[in-house]
Amino acid sequence: MVALQEVPELGPIARYEQEVVDRITDFNDPRQEWRRLFSELLGTFFLVLVAAGGGMMGHAFPGVISRTAAVVAPALMVMAIILFMGKVSGAHLNPAVSIAFALRQDFPWWRVPGYIVMQLAGATLAALFLRSVINVSAMYGSNYPAHGYSNMAAFWMELILTMGLVSVILGTASGAQNIGIIGAFGVGGYIALAGLWGSPISGASMNPARTFGPDLVSRTFTGYWVYIAGPVAGAALAVVIAFVLRGRGGGKAGSGAAQGDIFTEVYKEGQS
Could you read off the pLDDT of 114-142 as tens digits, one per residue? Predict the structure, then answer.
């Protein structure tokens, strides 16, 4: 008969370390979700700080900020955010992206409402900060259909631009084309390119939260439906395109990119 070996009792520090490890390995632990949510709040704050700040600063100091600078700056900020904290939450920064990842089965639906709330809150805080510091209305940092163009024209522009953006995001996150953190350059590059040619008609928002913050602070929701319906419809079409190109989602690579490295939930091994 073999004697059972006694397992030494862990000390208080070792027990604490083990508890931390256990929480990190269990994605269902709600005590860790706040890290993702804070990441989305902070990331969207920085994005809108630059995106809305360009228009508001340009109104305060005419001629200082060109349209090129105003559309390239948010692209560079998105790139930086993905690089420095994309591994925490996936760096969605955009309700349309969160919805697209969920439709693709790379992101659990139960996390979507929290992400969207944090994105809207981050955008609103950025608009409040800009208004208090620059001392001009936040409406100058928002997006509106161009003079002489209908809401429908702006809607179609937002739809097609967002379809391209989300296609790039889903594509660089897939198993076939997964390029890890370097995907930040593809996403940032697309945002800059879309803004350079598409911003005159709709502002190239591609993000309901980016437009929501300045609109709420300025209480000017002129044509806001365009900036919800256009990006969401474009994101949904991008999910269809991803299915046509790569099949179903829900695999390890796409789920890791969508959710970050904390409690990554994989739906189906071997999928894109």
Answer: 999 999 999 999 999 999 999 999 999 99
pLDDT tens-place string over residues 5-27: 555 677 777 776 666 555 544 44
Which domain, by its residues, includes 109? 32-259
Helix boundaries (H) for the chain? 12-25, 33-60, 67-89, 95-103, 112-134, 151-173, 183-202, 208-218, 226-246, 252-259
Domain membership of residue 23 (yes or no) is no
Say what percent of the chain tops pLDDT 70: 79
Residues 6+ apart with CB under 8 A from 153: 145, 201, 202
By the 8 A CB rule, do 142 and 55 touch? yes
Domain count, the chain: 1
**Which of 130, 100, 128, 136 is CA-nearest to residue 115?**
100
Q: How confident is the model at residue 175 (pLDDT cuts 50, 70, 90)?
A: very low
Residue 230's φ and ψ, nearest 5 degrees, are -60, -55
Q: How far is CA 68 from CA 53, 73, 144, 191, 249, in A?
A: 14, 8, 18, 12, 36
Say what the pTM is: 0.81
pLDDT of residue 171: 87
CATH number at residue 96: 1.20.1080.10
